[in-house]
Structures
1.
Amino acid sequence: MTSAANTASLPRRHWKRPPLLIKSPLLRWIIYGGALVYLVLAVGTVEVNWSRVYEGLERGWRFIQGFLVPDFTSRWRDISVGLVESLTMTVTSTVVGILISVPIGIGAARNLAPAWIYLVCRAIIAVSRSFQEVIIAILLVAMFGFGPFAGFLTLSFATIGFLSKLLAEDIEDIDETQAEAIRATGAGWWQLVNYAIQPQVMPRLIGLSLYRLDINFRESAVIGIVGAGGIGATLNTSIDRYEYDSAGAIMLIIIGIVMVSEYSSSHIRKWVQ
Amino acid sequence: MPVGKIAGQPVWQHRTPRARLALWAGWLGLVALFVYCWQVMTETTIWAFVHDAPAQAVDIGSRMLPPRWGYIEKLLLPLWDTLNMATLGTLLGVILAVPVAFLAARNTTPSVMLLRPIALFIIVSSRSINSLIWALLLVAIIGPGLLAGIVAIGLRSIGFIGKLLYEAIEEIDVSQVEAVTATGASRGQIMDYAIVPQILPAFCGITVFRWDINIRESAILGLVGAGGLGLQLQASLNVLAWPQVTMIFLVILGTVVVSEWVSAKVRQAIT
């Protein structure tokens, strides 16, 4: 009875949901307010020509139709040439990229390389990572002329930054006890790499290489737009000609190849690990 | 354990003879594939251009330096456009990606048979087509300008945000969902109180990460007419104004470095 009286005398309390992300209310309002002001400013500067957009809707509809009923046959010659260029470019650039990035990756691992080699390799990685493929492709096309060779060089260059960085991080994360054990046998540097490092990083290296193969194919579709050959050039031409059914077919082929390679690479990765 | 024999003594070996043979065959196949691809790819290459490349590189390099510093005044507005394109595009991508992610996650999708495959297909197609290609298409459809760039960035972001978000949703702690369900909460309340708080940090991290990538991408979208820095780049390339090109590269580089730093800081603060 006393407990009931106690409960009745207490003021009713409601549970209030705690804030989800930003705990301090002042900071929360500053961030929300700032975001709102920015949004108004940003949307204000976007000039949209609505009549042009309205005109374009009909084309958009034709593109969707082209995507649903793709036309593989009438431009098949161009498509197959572009596709072969893209695929060969992808394979060669991935292989060359891996061959170059393995030594750089080892050099960029703090636990294996002396300081000056480490700095040089990290600088190479930083340069390769900071520019997008398209910008590299513009420069290389200007130097090497149009065609898949410039594309091959671009993708190899981009592969180096990606793979070396991840490989170096992986080498830095290895289980040191195994390296210690191999060192204790009196092994030299090469033997250390071969017997202690390589078995530990190999599964991940294979996984990353397959992943990069995938990325390189996708990128090969892009750098064609600036003249580096491949399926991107074919796609660019077909959009310029307003042949949306061919463009739809090319995009479906790209999506299909990416799906197949993603699916098979996830299988291979499981099998390797 | 594979054991070989050297001079009559059993010796430990890493692999069986069959595994060694298979490994060699695999490597041989890879080398053959590489050589074949190399042959096909270089069939149409004009080697004279390749031999000439170092001279070209020196020539272009000498034209590119020094960068035209004064040009930066004309780059400020395109830079603002580029930032807006990336931010608004990310916002559009988030708005489109969240429902797709909930449809694609195995534990929140209303129908595993029908809606989940559709959502997964949307994610894959958005991921496989680069934003430059989306922009190429959209410029043809809705005309050149920032809007095409924003929509292109948004469409490309669906796949990235959708994939990472639906993986995060699938990995949530089920016991919290059960606890909220046990109070008699409705579907919407379960979503609000059990699922959203669990994925919110991941969601913010993914969004900021994508924003950082989008800044990189929006800088070059102008090459196909979608506004921003890329438009200036295209204009300068067309008239072979290499010192301006260098200046634009420097601005892009600076923006990318700053946005990467910001995104790393924000992600550190959240998670």
2.
Amino acid sequence: MIYRAQRLLHRYNGRVALQVHDLAIPQGSRFAVVGPNGCGKTTLMEILVGLLAPSEGELFFYDRPLHLPLDKDQRSRVAYVAQQPFALPGSVIDNVVLALGRGRSRAQNRRIAFGWLELLGIEALADRSERTLSVGQLRLATLARAAARDAPLLVLDEPFAFVDETFEAIVQRVLERHHSAGGTIVMTNPRRSALANWATEVLELGAAAPANSPQAPAEQIPDRAVAPMSQPSR
Amino acid sequence: MNQFFGVETLAICVTSLKTSSVAIVAASLLGVPVALWASNNYFAGRGALVTVFNTLTALPSVFVGVLLYSLLSRSGPLGSLELLYTWPAMSMGQTLLALPLIVSLTLAALSRTDPRLRKELIALGIPAWRTGWILVKEARFGVLAAVVAAFGRVFTEVGSALMLGGNIRHSTRTITTSIAMETSKGNFEFGLGLGFLLLAVALAINIGFHSLQETRAR
């Protein structure tokens, strides 16, 4: 298992934003997290990639407890594409080069980065500043940056929001490439049907929990805030 | 008035600029990393630390003067260094005055950077030193404003400069200590002239910083 957790819970200002009773993400799976807006999908993604510590419960990553900050080995195993694409200051290729890290010459890094941009069909944007990109282009650039890290686990938060079919096809191609190379993909989407044919595992989160007492123990939180993990869809 | 446009006035200008510049470089080298560290780490007492630095921005220069005087005087623990009444002692005092201002204002500038930037840097596994460099670059206008404000504070202070430098002619006499001396002697015109000179130098330096910001913004 890549991830394993029980009774994972997160609160923002005392309000329950996420509750997952049982989480298990197997290696090599295409794992979908679905649910309506505000159900905690982004919160779960940020917990999985080590940007946020859960308020309650312990998450295991490759059978080791995941504590913040992640160590170098843990960090190298996961790449993340956030829901709101955000590029670091600089050109598109600079962003991808930054993700590649050190250990190679600058020319080698640029060549590898350019290869990723070609794969996503945005090589023409290589030297463009991140400030001049459209949201769709920015999404592709951040996907190239994440994919370039070559991590076995790719976590994507609603990568298909506000994008056209061409973009969706490009992303699908990159994800397919990652999966066929033995990688694991975790992806969120507000609609279950959108990922029905893609996912091998689905976790359905319920609507956001109503305002509970800040001190309310997890047992008292209504179950309707949580949906159990379904069986693999195929 | 002829003596105003002499070598002596030039010498006190040079001493003022030298002590303040060294102090600002030292305070920036210490203060910016401290602000980065406090900005990137959440620990118990972080709020208290920020409050302490905010409070120290109002540190009286005479208090810094007394504090360092007691350390640097012949009978003090650092007396053997024989720094009292030298320009490095004045720079040390000014560094202490500038440090809280640089930490507080840099911290404020860093807190205004897009929170997504920090998250992306963490998610990409960028090493801490590089993350810090990228954040400072992103907050450069605020950081530069902190440096400018701190320079204004130390360049115009008189309390610690007088106590630690002693206003020694051709050695530790600065524009501000000179103003204090000339005024006490009844040379109000000379004092006023030096006051305007102080303002002119400060204005020139601020114009320099401003044009640097403009260049970076383009």
